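Standup notes
- DV: blocked on the single-chain target, sequence here:
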Amino acid sequence: MDNLTALTLISIIYIILGLLLRFLTPGINRFYGYRTKASMANEVNWNFSQKYSGALFAIFGLVLLLIVFALEYAKINVANNIGKAGVGILILGSAVTTIILTEKAMKKNSKNK
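- DV (later): unblocked, structure below
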């Protein structure tokens, strides 16, 4: 599997998971969803974090998909090690950014309640 195919699949997974979390918010559980100590502390945090992180995952999925289309259109070769590292950084960076932004928003939301 080449780098762009992998990035495309991950983008689609991000979008699907994001929409599922956003619109089919699961109850507090230990198996799936946005699960951190803060998000599992109470129902308010849980519901907020699922919807917020779900929206971010869907947005990042769309952004990653646009990057794939731009790379394909520009005929940029990402089959080398630099391309693999770039794809890894995009994926990891979007996941870490989602966590950071969700935790900050959850803290702000719980202070306003």
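- Follow-up: The helical segments are 3-23, 43-73, 81-111.
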